[in-house]
Amino acid sequence: MSKNYISGAILALFIASCSPKEMNNEKVESNSKVAIMTLDPGHFHAGLIHKSMYLDVDSTVYIFAPEGSELKDHLNRLASYNSRTDNPTAWNLEVYTGADFLQKMITQKPGNVMMVAGKNDVKIDYILSAVENGIHVYADKPLVINPEGFQKLLTAFQTAKEKNLLLYDIMTERFEITTLLQRELSMIPEVFGTLEDGTPEDPAISKVSVHHFFKYVSGSPLVRPDWFFDVEKEGTGIVDVTTHLVDLIQWEAFPDQILDTSEVRMNTARLWPTTMTLEEFSKVTGKSTFSDFLQKNVKDGKLEVLSNGEMNYTLRGKHAKVSVIWNYQAPEGAGDTHYSMMRGTKANLIIRQGKEENYRPALYVKLIGSGQADLEKAVKQTLQTKYPGIDLQLMPSGEYQVIIPDSYHNGHEAHFAQVTEKFLEYFKMGTMPAWEVPNMITKYYTTTKAYEMAMKK
User: Fold this and answer.
1) E strands along 178-219, which residues?
2) Which residues make Cβ contacts (< 8 Å) with residue 406, sequence separation at least 6?
3) What digits encode the pLDDT tens for the residues 396-405?
4) CA 222, CA 328: separation in Å to the nearest integer?
5) Would you say residue 10 has pLDDT above 50?
6) Contacts 24+ apart (CB under 8 A), 188-191
7) In terms of Cα–Cα distance, which of 9, 31, 30, 26 is closest to 18?
8) Which CATH superfamily is domain 5-170 in?
């Protein structure tokens, strides 16, 4: 055995918790249709898809990556899932750590699906190599972070089409319950009417997301790699998390419809930095000094990360606004937050996730005129069949809150299993809905156009 390979047995010595006492009740067969090859897992999302096991996925995961702390963190995360008391996973890991990890993956191809989550500047090159060599791609967002990457993405989608391959990005936020219900209600004309055109000052649909550099994942403090704070590798704030928000705007405003880049008009876009002290940087990375490649962004002893972004654009004539803010750490008891507004001719649908909501997303309906009976029918009858247990409550503000049982609030990490199940569904069918690929193209056209405009300023 080459020193660059770590088999499941040796890996068990490296991460002793790889052999749980009790495995899942649902055994994953070794001849499953999907075999995952994880490439260069530099982001913790690479591990989150393995927090659950899947009947259609082989229990052996092939990992190709350079040696280092990022690989160790990934292996430890999977080991923690294997060793947990409650419903442990049973992943068997085969790891290759040679410098030629990409070439080894595409020549050996022990699996048929590449999963990638890591440095965003090289991600599109990994994707291109995979599809050119007949490998399906399941990739964390963003697939690209600049206009040059977008052109490569067009090539990748064309190649995937010619070779009958899936190329799919991980859009977890489509599975957040308040977003699902916001979309459902917007599709009931008796309640919502139709989407307003809006204006730049008062958009028809808006999404604001607040994130934090220091956070806890799977119960442990998240250690981020130092390159995460280099926007040349990670991407600026206007092309990273905004991917989710632009996706949701398309998915909610034009459900199941094919969109085109010609329908996007970018009006304004801007970027601004989050400033970190060395102490804060050390706490989140474990590094005692600012890395050499970050020195270009150090001013007066503090690191400036161009992580915040905002764009105003129209899609099919509907005004949309997307804003992403990164703070260092959330207040005690708080976390990442999301705000969303859809303005209809009969009602506004609003998601808030602030202190009053205990930092858990909540959906409100503000009726324009009389529509209480239609709203009650939509929630208590129509949507009850699909989402049993939801209800409606009139608030002192005059808005209605959609009451959602706790069981539906399964959290961000659980959404990775849900979106993976969707990918497996598409894999089994051998195709995706007609709107998925053109809308992915439109989405990344939007984010890279915003980047291009913001950087000119």
Assistant:
1) 205-214, 216-217
2) none
3) 999 999 999 9
4) 12
5) no
6) 188/374, 188/378, 188/382, 189/346, 190/346, 190/371, 190/374, 190/377, 190/378, 191/344, 191/346, 191/347, 191/365, 191/371, 191/374, 191/375, 191/378
7) 9
8) NAD(P)-binding Rossmann-like Domain (3.40.50.720)
DSSP string of 403-425, one letter each residue? E--GGG---HHHHHHHHHHHHHH
Please give the Cα distance from 163 to 431 (Å, whole number): 12
* Residue 244 confidence (pLDDT) above 70: yes
Three-class DSSP category at 383: helix
- Residue with structure tokens 């405009």? 453
CA distance 197 to 319: 6
pLDDT average, residue stretch 173-187: 97
> What are the backbone dihedrals phi and psi of residue 421, each rounded to the nearest 5 degrees, phi first?
-60, -40
Task: Record the tokens describing residue 312, joined without a space.
Answer: 């105003």
Q: Could you tell me the CA-to-CA distances from 221 to 83, 217, 273, 278 in Å, in that order?
A: 19, 6, 23, 18
For the chain, which residues make up each domain, given as ranges? 5-170, 174-413
CA distance 348 to 365: 6
Amino acid identity for residue 315 in this structure:
L
Question: Can you name the residues that pair with 137 across neighbouring β-strands?
Answer: 114, 167
Distance CA 293, CA 309 (A): 22
Structure tokens that stand for 360 in this block: 């858990």
Average pLDDT over residues 291-311: 97
Q: What CATH number has the domain spanning 174-413?
A: 3.30.360.10
Average pLDDT over the chain, rounded to an integer: 92
Per-residue model confidence as pLDDT tens digits over 345-397: 999 999 999 888 988 999 999 999 889 999 999 999 999 999 999 999 999 99
For residue 298, what is the enclosing H or E element? strand 298-299
Report d(CA 419, CA 426) in Å as an integer.
11
* CA gap 210, 241 in Å, rounded: 10
d(CA 228, CA 316): 34
Question: 7 falls in which pLDDT band (50, 70, 90)?
Answer: low
| The two three-digit tokens of residue 353, written as one number | 């996730």
